[in-house]
Structures are given as C-alpha cells and as structure tokens.
Design goal:
The chain is mainly beta. It folds into 2 domains: 2-151, no CATH class; 156-269, Immunoglobulin-like (Sandwich), CATH 2.60.40. Helices cover 10% and strands 47% of the residues. It binds copper (II) ion (CU).
C-alpha cells in the first residue's frame, strides 16, 4: 500500500518539460521517489548463515537541489541473522560490490529515517542504475541484504471518447481506466499496468500505448492486449524513445473496437516523474 500513497504523491510533484533541439523532449522532474527492495540473493559476495527470509525496503524522496539532490529516506528490514550494524548507499552495478557513497545509519533499527545530500555524480549514478542499498550484520560484515536503487511513480488516467482522434462513432458513454506503476532502473523501466473499460460499442479488439501528444494521433509503442477484456493486467519493459515519451507526457493509451478501428477511447498519460536532471 505504501507504494500507492507514494505514487499519489508522485502525481503532485512538479515536472518541467524542456525542449531539446532535434525534436525529442527531455523531461526533468523536480522530485522523484526511489526505492530498493533488498534480499540476501542480491548481495555480493553471497552472505553466510540463514538468510533466506531476510528482507529490507529502502524508500526515499529525492528533491532537486542546486548541486544534486536531497534525499529523505526510510529504511525497514527484518529476519536478519543479527543486529543491523550499518546500512549504506553504495555505488556498484548489480552483482558487483562497490564503495560506500552514503552512510545511512549505524547501528540501524528498522523504521530508521534520515536525510542525505547527493552530489551530481551520485545522483547520476543513482539514476543510471549504478547504486544499491545494503544492510550489514556481525555475521555478514560485507553486507547481508542488498537491492539496486530505482525510481518509481504511478499514473491512472481516465480514457474516454472525447480524447480520441479522429472522433469515434457512437461512443459517448464509453470509458476506461489505465493504472500503471513504472519502476525505472537505469535506461529501462518496467511498467506494471491494468486496464478496465465499459460501455464500448463492441468488443475491444486491441489496446495500445501510442506515442503522441494530446490531440494528435501517433504510432503504436506498446501492445497491451488484443483482444482485450476489462481488468486485463500486464507488465511491459520500456526503453529509449518510449520511456522518454512516458516521462514527457507524450504518450497515450487507447482501446480499439470493430466500429472504431482507429480507436474508441483514449487517455493521455500524464508525465511520469522518474528522472531529475541537474
Ligand atoms: Cu491503439
């Protein structure tokens, strides 16, 4: 549930769209939410002792500053082999140990909170998927649980016929809801989504994420389903141009029917705040 409330916060934070020469828009959020889900399997080298049930969650709000970002964080954990003697943010790729960048606490209790300042280099590493959080114990001084840091945000736009281009036929009462949570680690994001709809003029033959700004038709970027039933859910990995469009609010979701093959209901997806650019 915590992620839902964080996600709602995410919808309220400011986003600036900066036009870049060449036509592609690059988006920078003033504030993003980040997280790391920790377990022993991700720790390198592999920890000793009975660690199968050891878990931890690191969540933080990163707010842009003149020199990088300020991080307001919270750490919870359980089922460790002993006391949590320290927790850190390290720099390092998945599966690789790396140096400590930020000392979070030491010793640590589950539920600990704090504030840390990230310089531009650490912020860049964090947003490139190059940082992890881990918790150290007496048995596992090198780290017992670990998780790579990614950014997370959610959106839930409403689909209707009014937003569809060209204007659909006979679909005044048709509507839908697209809910999606994006977790971005480095250059790719995983979108966990769900689509519901009602009162279409016929069966839903397909639903897509398209590239395009409000009021403009654009190409299919992600096929969500086809045919589709209301309540369908899935996961899609997005990168490059599609991820950039989602971060910029330049993508939409629509549902196609036999009567309206070009699209019957549509929702512009609001800009998803996943990246701070110093
Ligand atoms: Cu479509």
């Amino acid at each position: 549930m915590r992620w839902k409330s964080l996600a709602l916060l995410g919808c309220a934070v400011g986003i600036a769209v900066v036009a870049v020469s060449g036509g592609a828009a690059r988006v920078t959020a003033e504030q993003i939410h980040v997280r790391a889900l920790m377990n022993a399997a991700e720790e390198a080298p592999a920890p000793a002792g009975s660690t199968a049930a050891a878990r931890g969650t690191f969540t933080a709000t990163a707010t842009k500053t003149a020199t990088g970002a300020s991080l307001q964080w919270r750490l919870t954990f359980g089922n460790l082999t002993g006391d949590a003697v320290a927790a850190h943010i390290h720099t390092g790729a998945p599966g690789q140990p790396g140096p400590v960048t930020v000392s979070l606490c030491g010793p640590c209790t589950s539920g600990a909170t704090g504030t840390a300042q990230l310089d531009a280099t650490v912020l860049a590493a964090l947003q490139n998927g190059g940082t992890y959080v881990n918790v150290h114990t007496p048995t596992n001084r090198g780290g017992e649980i670990r998780g790579q840091v990614g950014s997370v945000a959610s959106v839930r736009p409403v689909l209707n016929a009014r937003q569809e281009i060209p204007k659909p036929k006979g679909a005044a009462r048709a509507k839908g809801r697209f809910t999606a949570t994006a977790v971005k680690t480095g250059a790719s994001a995983v979108l966990s989504w769900r689509l519901t709809f009602s009162k279409l003029t016929g069966r839903a033959v397909a639903a897509h994420i398209h590239l395009g700004r409000r009021g403009v038709a654009g190409p299919v970027a992600v096929t969500l389903c086809g045919p589709c039933r209301s309540g369908v859910a899935g996961r899609s990995t997005v990168t490059g141009q599609v991820l950039a469009a989602l971060e910029a609010g330049r993508a939409y979701v629509n549902v196609h029917t036999p009567r309206n093959p070009a699209g019957e209901i549509r929702a512009q997806v609001p800009a998803i705040p996943l990246t701070i650019t110093p």
